[in-house]
Amino acid sequence: MRKKLSIICMITCIAVLTCFLLAEQKSFANAPGSNKPIDISITFAGNTATEKSFAWITKSNEPAPAVVVVWETDSLPITFTGKSEILSGRRVNKVTATGLKPNTKYMYRCGDGNSANWSDTFTFVTGFDKEDGTTFSFLYMTDAQCATDQQFELWQKCAKHAYAAFPNAKFVAVTGDLTDRGSDEELWDKFFYYGRNLLSYVTVVPAIGNHETDMGPGYFEDHFFFSGNHAGLPDYVYSFDYGEAHFMVLSTEKKYSDFTSADQSVVDEAYQFLDSQLNWLRYEVTKSKKKWNIVLIHKAIYTNGKYVNSEATHFYRSKLAPVFDELSIDAVLQGHNHVFDRGFIYRGNPVFGLIPSQTAVNKEQGTLYLTNNTSGAKFYEIVKGFNNPLLLKSAQPHVQLYTGVTVSEPYIRFETYTVSDQGPDILYDTFTIYK
Predict the structure, then answer these.
(1) 37: nearest Cα among 87, 94, 82, 80
(2) Which sequence spans correspond to the domains of the chain?
(3) Does 176 score more than 70 pLDDT?
(4) Of 63, 87, 207, 209, which sees the most CB atoms within 10 A?
(5) pTM of the model as a whole
(6) Distances from the Cα of 374 to the Cαs of 173, 291, 421, 426, in angstroms?
(7) Residue 387 three-state SS
(8) Homologous superfamily, domain 38-125
(9) What fold does the segment set 136-434 form as a domain?
């Protein structure tokens, strides 16, 4: 009898555990009408030391407040409210927390003020109070571009490995194509669900990609709260300071066909968008007092990947590269081509004297162009015969990559790793710029 009871108890426990696991697997997609927050993201607000912005989705189409509560250990919570809108049948919530202490770890949760609707509790860390001269690191990944759970599991693994390798990373830069279809809300739910152990804790710096604009940029804008741009540009064209570096995020998502359209109004709008960004970029670099200037874009302009010889690549290279040279941009972090590329280029030529085996440079002129493959499942093969002379290294390792970037006063170091299923991740490439 006792043995039979033990077997019954064991079967019951297994059934309960199975139900729990199934519920956990599906928890990325709350039922319609739910007020529980999902798709939580943290982004920079105006002051990286004292402000943070939050965005999240609830599957309810009923109006409700947007509330974030933050607190330090053994301190009273501080409540911040923001705005919520009903968009595409769900509620989009955005809140900025201000007046925070610099270089401080906070706990937080999101909701609508109702005790039944709080998110889990997560943490974040504010930036330095004295930014200049402080060494820090951040993560750079690109093109998860997932469409299935199996693919999202690869993104999850890459995010997990990257955060484990650089646990003190101050933010993660993602240069576009976060999901396969930007207008598919379920894919956004999965992107955040599978990346939650990174994205719920670390500030994200996303650049918009072509897969975010399949039906326009609206869904991309819904999932992140950008600090705003005062140059007549969309909020997803933005900048911020951190440590000794000034970061500028551009959009390369006007199609080449817009610039060559038979409709002159379409052409005018496309060029106005591009020219406004370039003028804004000049203004940003001119006003910045930081030593390093780093740009994030999606469409790689120097690459040996699939789109190496596309009209869009040639067009954007002709427009962007001369301005990057003019402003002496130190590094351009790219995406779109799903290969690994690294080049140090000035005026359309590799910087004189550099050789492929070289892993450091004392900068006088030139810009580092880096594309670190994919953080998902989709790989492109190297296209030979076009840009090989321009790039110090081009390869397709057929594995997910992530890059840890260390920024200090005398140098920036880029360390790219392959995600390994067995043993520690392997250092795939390293390059350091001294200035």
Answers:
(1) 94
(2) 38-125, 136-434
(3) yes
(4) 207
(5) 0.91
(6) 13, 29, 16, 16
(7) coil
(8) Purple acid phosphatase-like, N-terminal (2.60.40.380)
(9) Purple Acid Phosphatase; chain A, domain 2 (3.60.21)
